[in-house]
Specification:
Layout lengths: L1 H27 L4 E6 L5 E8 L5 E5 L10 H4 L2 H6 L1 E5 L20 H13 L6 E5 L1 H13 L6 E5 L20 H14 L7 H12 L3 H6 L18 E6 L7 H8 L5 E6 L6 H4 L1 H13 L7
Parallel strand pairs: 3-4, 3-5, 5-6, 6-7, 7-8
Antiparallel strand pairs: 1-2, 2-4
Helix pairs in contact: 4-5, 6-7
């Protein structure tokens, strides 16, 4: 009888928590809707939607080893929800999406581009703005490479040049199944993502997302195409690049000088910001996104 009462009590607590969560979302009008959408090869993709169902679509693409949770601040921002239909995707091999076994599932640009196209078609998105953080910027460029400039309204790259500038590749890492090492590496990884420490919730989300990527996916992604330098001169998409002045992985001034060769690309450098502008300076980032949609962007806001 005691075990039965314990089960009833736990069930009641769960229902109470779910009820509280639902009412909280209902109160702020920012409930998240989850979709499972088949990618280009049938890989199930975890897709999150919120905001204005009739507003212009903005697709958010996270960085390497992360998930839709990277954009938690944007997904729950009242002004962005009022203006935009926000879509965040767990990329293949990441987060709650499927994690194919073969090397071919991650090589080249097509698997990534086709996944994004499947989401665009399934949700009937009309020429979305694509926001790509870090590795997500490469996926945004994959999409334009495969489907052309007319497939998007614009690109916003943050903490990323999308491969428009050649990167200096070091020797490839090899990952194994050592989970203790993976936990430590995940914590170290998140410490590098920002100049100043983020909230405990944001840090934990990043660590947990990192641990959801298996070692075999990390090793397979060595095959991923990361060179889009052939697209720099011809990119005919209105593009805003938001970089952090303190981002140790990207020389912001040099990137601005190179990307300025294309008149369709504008670069904004944020002071005292590292690799993750949308987390470190969310108000500035969100205003830039709103302005990008409402008028021709410039490097000055």
């Amino acid at each position: 009888m005691t075990h039965l009462l314990q089960k009833v009590f736990l069930a009641w607590c769960l229902l109470l928590a779910l009820s509280f969560e639902s009412s909280a979302h209902a109160a702020d009008g920012q409930a998240l809707r989850f979709h499972e959408i088949a990618g280009g090869d049938g890989t199930p993709l975890n897709v999150v939607e919120t905001g204005n169902a009739t507003g212009p679509a903005v697709v958010l693409l996270h960085g390497f080893s992360q998930s839709y949770l990277s954009f938690a601040l944007q997904l729950h921002d009242p002004e962005l929800n009022k203006r935009f239909r926000l879509i965040a995707i767990d990329l293949r091999g990441h987060g709650g999406s499927g994690k194919p076994w073969t090397l071919e599932a991650y090589a080249g640009h097509k698997p990534w581009a086709q996944d994004l196209r499947q989401v665009v078609d399934a949700l009937k998105l009309d020429r979305p703005i694509i926001v790509g953080w870090s590795f997500g910027g490469y996926v945004a460029m994959d999409y334009v490479r495969e489907y052309g400039a007319g497939a998007v309204e614009g690109l916003v790259l943050t903490g990323s040049h999308g491969g428009l500038i050649r990167r200096a590749d070091g020797p490839p890492n090899h990952y194994d199944g050592d989970l203790d090492a993976a936990i430590e590496n995940a914590r170290h990884f998140m410490q590098l993502m920002t100049v100043k420490p983020v909230s405990n919730d944001a840090f934990d989300r990043g660590v947990f997302s990192t641990l959801m990527m298996p070692a075999y996916v990390r090793n397979a992604m060595v095959q991923k195409r990361l060179d889009n330098t052939d697209m720099l001169a011809t990119l005919a998409v209105r593009t805003l690049v938001i970089l952090g002045e303190k981002d140790g992985s990207l020389p912001a001034e040099k990137i601005r000088d190179v990307l300025s060769e294309n008149p369709n690309i504008s670069v904004r450098i944020l002071p005292a910001v590292g690799h993750s502008a949308f987390m470190e300076a969310p108000e500035t980032f969100d205003r830039a996104l709103l302005k990008f949609r409402s008028e021709e962007h410039t490097s000055e806001l």
